[in-house]
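Regression test case RT-17, inverse folding.

Input:
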């Protein structure tokens, strides 16, 4: 019996594999363990922080991907976007080793790519499995998925102070006063998270798409599919009908009659992630630009005071977004590039040269990650940028360093002439 389930004395419902144990992966592992599942991962070659997170939530540490595939029927890939394809290739390689050995799997493995990648990227990753000769009926079934919202967590006791939101690494941190005004910042419901008052958990949504679903009892060969999906709030998407294929009445009938079927396509869950994330992360980038510009032009107190008086909910959201993003800025660069690919896809029609906003949004997060001290921040070990004043100070230092480098480069160019 596994020792990492919350319900003592009970066999786990199943063992779920998660790669890797980042902030989100470890938080989802906690949610699964609290609901009677065992969780396993392979942390070989990962950082000590990753190993510590896995141990802290009670996940079982396996030494190989082969062990993960042998012991788990479902593997969730939750990694930075740049690692999504390589993670899938790892699983493919390990699966083929097992298949050629004395103890191959007898039932298909479900591999769910839950990463923030574009539809074209996730389709290319799904194609890796087919190219490797893995049959979905016998070997691996690919699920396109995404995560909408912040990490799941237990309900925290809070005061009337507005907070930055729940975190898997500890209690929510208070938002500091935005200005010298005596008027308090209003408190608003937490965004990007759902709350269950019965269980005390707050959680994101995990939409999935494609031909394989955890809730389709006719194809999912294991007895825990619906409970697993309910625990993680996995909702399998249904495609909108092709507007060119039927009349309005027929479209409505098709949508209703297929509401419980697995009729969506690989790429649609990833598309949903991108259009959803573009709002929050686009706003975060605009907030960084506005705050740093106000700081450089010495009007930051007036800017914050105006927001506090005229748009307190916007100030609240902005504060929460920008003060929690520094440890994630490096991975948001690739996420913005994936959003860019989604918006400029041929099926969409936005012009890559003239209207590709998110290519530049990626540049904002690249600046934070590469040219400011904020890029050195780690989740759970924060030092800088925890309030607006220090965040703007750090951004200002980065911009000042850039201005000085440009001045030196300009002098060098002048000397060459």
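Golden output:
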């Amino acid at each position: 019996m596994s020792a990492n389930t919350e319900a003592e004395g009970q066999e786990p419902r199943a063992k779920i594999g998660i790669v890797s144990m980042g902030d989100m992966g470890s938080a989802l592992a906690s949610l699964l363990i609290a609901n009677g599942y065992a969780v396993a991962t392979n942390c070989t070659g990962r950082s000590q922080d990753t190993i510590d997170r896995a141990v802290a939530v009670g996940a079982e540490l396996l030494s190989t991907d082969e062990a993960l595939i042998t012991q788990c029927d479902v593997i969730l890939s939750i990694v930075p976007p740049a690692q999504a394809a390589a993670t899938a290739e790892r699983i493919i390689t390990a699966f083929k080793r097992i298949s050629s050995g004395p103890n191959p799997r007898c039932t298909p493995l479900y591999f769910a790519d839950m990463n923030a990648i574009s539809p074209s990227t996730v389709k290319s990753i799904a194609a890796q499995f087919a190219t490797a000769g893995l049959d979905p009926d016998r070997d691996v079934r690919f699920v396109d998925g995404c995560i909408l919202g912040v990490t799941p967590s237990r309900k925290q006791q809070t005061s009337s102070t507005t907070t930055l939101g729940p975190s898997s690494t500890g209690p929510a941190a208070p938002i500091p006063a935005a200005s010298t005004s005596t008027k308090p910042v209003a408190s608003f419901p937490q965004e990007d998270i759902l709350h269950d008052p019965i269980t005390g958990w707050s959680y994101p949504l995990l939409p999935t798409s494609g031909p394989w679903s955890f809730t389709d009892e006719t194809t999912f060969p294991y007895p825990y599919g619906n409970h697993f999906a309910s625990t993680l709030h996995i909702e399998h998407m249904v495609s909108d009908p092709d507007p060119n294929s039927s009349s309005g009445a027929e479209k409505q009938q098709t949508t209703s009659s297929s509401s419980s079927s697995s009729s969506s396509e690989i790429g649609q869950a990833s598309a949903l992630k991108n259009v959803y994330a573009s709002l929050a992360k686009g706003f975060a980038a605009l907030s960084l630009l506005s705050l740093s510009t106000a700081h450089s032009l010495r009007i930051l107190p007036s800017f914050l005071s105006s927001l506090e008086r005229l748009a307190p909910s916007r100030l609240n959201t902005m504060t929460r977004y920008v003060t929690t993003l520094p440890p994630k800025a490096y991975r948001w660069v690739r996420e913005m590039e994936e959003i860019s690919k989604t918006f400029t896809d041929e099926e969409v029609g936005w012009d890559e040269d003239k209207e590709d906003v998110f290519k530049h949004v990626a540049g904002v997060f690249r600046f934070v990650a590469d040219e400011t001290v904020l890029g050195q921040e780690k989740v759970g070990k924060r030092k800088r940028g925890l309030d607006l004043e220090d965040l703007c100070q750090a951004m200002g230092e980065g911009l000042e360093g850039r201005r000085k480098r440009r001045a030196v480069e300009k002098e060098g160019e002048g000397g060459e002439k």
